[in-house]
Design goal:
Low-confidence stretches: none
Strand content: under 5%
Mean pLDDT: 86
Helix content: 55-70%
Largest sheet: 2 strands, antiparallel
Distance between the termini: 59 Å
Number of helices: 22
Shape: globular
Strand order of the largest sheet: 1-2
Number of strands: 6
Radius of gyration: 26 Å
Length: about 675
Amino acid sequence: MLCSNWAWFGVRAAPVAWLLLGLLGLLRPRGLRFVAHGLFPAGAVVGVALAVCAWQALAAGSCAAVLPLGLPELPMHLRLDALSAFFLLLLGGAAAAVSVFSAGYFRAGEGTAPGLLALQYHLFLAAMAWVLLADDAYAFMVAWEVMALASFFLVTSQHRVPEVRRAGFLYLLIAHLGAIAVLLCFGVLQGGSWQFTFDAMRRAQLSPGWASVAFALAVFGFGAKAGLVPLHAWLPEAHPAAPSPVSALMSGVMLKTAVYGLLRVGFDLLGAPHWSWGAALLALGLFSALFGVMFAAVQTDMKRLLAYSSIENLGLICAAVGLAMLFDGSGQRPFAALALAAALFHCLNHALFKSLLFLATGSVLHATQQRSLGKLGGLIRRMPWVAWPTLVASLAIAGLPPLNGFVSEWLLLQAFLVSPRLPLAFVNMLVPVGAALLVLASALAGYVMVKFYGVIFLGRMREPQLAHAHDAGWFERVALLALAGACIGLGLLPALLLERLNATVGLLVGSAATRWGDLGWLRAGAVSAASFSPLLFAAGIALVMLGGFAAIRRLYHGRVSRGAPWDCGYPWQDARMQDTAEGFGQPIRQIFEPFFRMRRHLPSPFDASPRYEVTVEDRFWYLLYRPIAGAVERAAGLVGRLQQGRIAVYLLYGFATLVALLVLVL
């Protein structure tokens, strides 16, 4: 079945339109109003159009095209199928909201010139769309590298700050290491045919050993982009350095291109996955999820907290993909469909609520000039248009019903609960441990969001200048409300999206179409009797709240007096006495202390100026990254000795090389 012509035309036109909008920014590189109120809203329109076309293409078959671009005898191939259509839907929806927000966010004199920033921003969007449409290794790698370079320049918008430059260099380094692994993966997948189209890779007959090598390279390459542990180090460094709309796109969308690549290779190009691949990816995903949420709980920088939260959510997504591979490799395709639906649903969920959270931090940062949680508080009074959508996103990412985060985590838990049907006795003993880790990570995620939202928006203002904080502008409000509405809508009516996802799931695991429920009910596919109604749940919550309010008003009206809150017998409390971000993280530091590298400075009773300081660091920096960096520096020092600055020495090198080549040839 072929997709409709207008949908196929629309998804191909979107990256071209974004690229043209970016080039228009060069016409007026200093024209902030032209860029903010012209180009960014136009980019949002392109995003909406892409989302509409992708929604139509989800259930309308596939299309393919060959472009007269590329290398001799190696043109670029494009393809739109149910898998790429879903991620294009995610890209278009998130890009539309972030572009509207960007129209009111960027200010004059902030880093890169507005026109150049518009070029980098829209080139980033176009490259991500091109990655999702590529149907050969050449087109994919070109788009992948353009995406990495465009995002690097966006991360280093404030390039005059040394910390920003260091964060950008680390991001680019890990991105290129991942790109090398992806390129090697495609080299293995071509199977000796030297045909690099994805169709040729599907036809290649790989031995089990080489197939496992290709999958391992894919996990390394795409895992580096997704931020899986131990390749996560760039995330908590790049997100604080990047502007908030850029962080929203990188976390909400760019990380999902890695999930797309993993699904494309693991299920499509390699064919049926082996169950051991799924077991390895499941373990890696669960460890990344637990690692990310533990570090998020002890952060005092709101953007670093959200960066570690992204590691947690990508870990959950990869765990769901691994569970789907485990089921598919064991011949349990209906169960694989359930786990895969949970993974895809959570991809879209994370794109929505994480984009909203990063955009909200941008509004807070502009209003207060503060990123440290220790200097915020009480902003719900000054910034209600930011606080209430952020509350929706916080509840959604914590997995509370009836919002969208609960739906995907509920589906994933149902997939874990049916795992005893696997015909693998050893795996059956270990998968319940994975379910326990999933529940633990979800509970800690709720703990993290209580800390995030409570410290920023509730309580008293910790600094006097917060009294002058201003609320978000109209462009920003529209974007925040749209994302919050999407979180609520997907939570209340999840079956609408899941029905559309049948085509994507069927493409990957070959499962028949699943009835996910109707009239507001959601069932866990065809493999479980579990079900719930988000609409009834929401109605129950509303009735309890309204009933309680009405009962209090009716029974106690006139007998309620207002007074100062209870002061615990100490009427001189101030804002500095309320709980802090460090106080919230202290129990997690104590419970999971072996995972952290901590440095403490404790005052003694005799200190004239007592100082208490605890620094929490990532052990992987010292176990993995610093040893590698030291080895590279030593190797560079040794190689540097060859550079003597004398022409005679260089001629000697050339002569020795020529003699060595002659010996090898003759």
